[in-house]
Amino acid sequence: MRCLPHVPILHPPHPSDASSIHKPMLKSMLGCCKVYISESRNKTALESIEKAASLFPKAPIINKFEDVDYNRVGYTLVSEFEESEPSLSSSSSCQLTCAVLAMVKAAFDAIDFGLHSGTHPRLGVVDHICFHPLASASLDQAATAARSLATKTGSTLQVPTFLYGAAHEEGRTLDSIRRTLGYFKPNANQNRWIGGPTSHTLPLNPNSGPAQVTLAKGVLIIGATNWVDNYNVPLLSSDISAVRRIAKLVSGRGGGLPSVQAMALAHGEGVIEVACNLLDPNKVGGERVQNKVECLAKEEGISVGKGYFTDFSQEEIIQKYLELFKERN
């Protein structure tokens, strides 16, 4: 069973917009966008971001996952992809990309990245955005939407923007960009994170936007991939070195589970999580990760709690989206 510690927020369509949505098309080409923002403690900032998204009712927020210890929030938006979806000038086809752009702008207006602290690594105010195709939508559609958004964030908002996955011409990976920019580098405390580039000059040229970074915004990474699940397993320990060993042996990079990326992140007093990206959840899901972590933790003498997903499944997201536009008798 999926465990969602935080209640999702749903923004239903305005009555004036509901009649213009063609229900037969809803299942055909749906795009999902996940937006990760480096803030969860400033409620005023989050309200501003959500208000910006609500101006685009055909791209509702289906899930909101907040984590105060990580000081991070994740939003999941869904909208219909049209064949000309990525046009940011057409009101009928830009709902998803325009909603996300409005959220990014609101986040930059409300949050100073230089003041951020938390136990989750990050590279910017808006740390990561990823587009996923749902139902019969194609990865190419998601990639085109990602590139269109990146052009706007770079040129209009003047933030260095990097592309990955299907949105990048050479298929560059998210973790390769993060590694180059210092995402995985802890500070002297070993369980806190530096928080992205510490110099105005970047070691990697962005795909859009300026080549220099402002510390108040950081950088932005936008990509397009097939579905990815996030599954976190809490370990009742303060031994970051031991949990890092476990995370390494869980990950495909460390010879563990294929298509799994894992890292150890401090999560409150006496808890460290093995936080995982499941790049191919149909082959390696949360249950296998849970079993692997429990096996390795037993060898270290560490107790393990029940893991949880940070979002709904693809099927649940589609269903919740469709329910928003269901006729009410």
Draw up the topology in text.
Elements: H1 15-18, E1 29-37, H2 43-54, E2 61-67, E3 72-80, H3 95-110, E4 126-135, H4 139-155, E5 161-165, H5 174-181, E6 220-224, E7 229-236, H6 240-250, E8 260-266, E9 272-278, H7 286-300, E10 303-304, E11 308-309, H8 314-324
Parallel strand pairs: 4-6, 5-6
Antiparallel strand pairs: 1-3, 1-4, 2-3, 7-9, 7-10, 7-11, 8-9
GO molecular function: folic acid binding; glutamate formimidoyltransferase activity
Enzyme class: transferase
Protein name: glutamate formimidoyltransferase
SSE succession: HEHEEHEHEHEEHEEHEEH
The CATH superfamily name of the largest domain is: Formiminotransferase, N-terminal subdomain
- The CATH class of the largest domain is identified as Alpha Beta
**Which strand-content bin applies to the residues?**
15-25%
| Arrangement of strands in the largest sheet | 2-3-1-4-6-5
* CATH level-two architecture of the largest domain: 2-Layer Sandwich
Helix content: 25-40%
Give the count of helical stretches: 8
**Unreliable runs:** 1-26, 89-93
**Helix and strand composition category:** alpha+beta
Tell me the overall shape. globular
> What is the CA-atom radius of gyration, in angstroms?
19 Å
User: How many DSSP E strands?
Assistant: 11
Q: Can you summarize the main beta sheet?
A: 6 strands, mixed
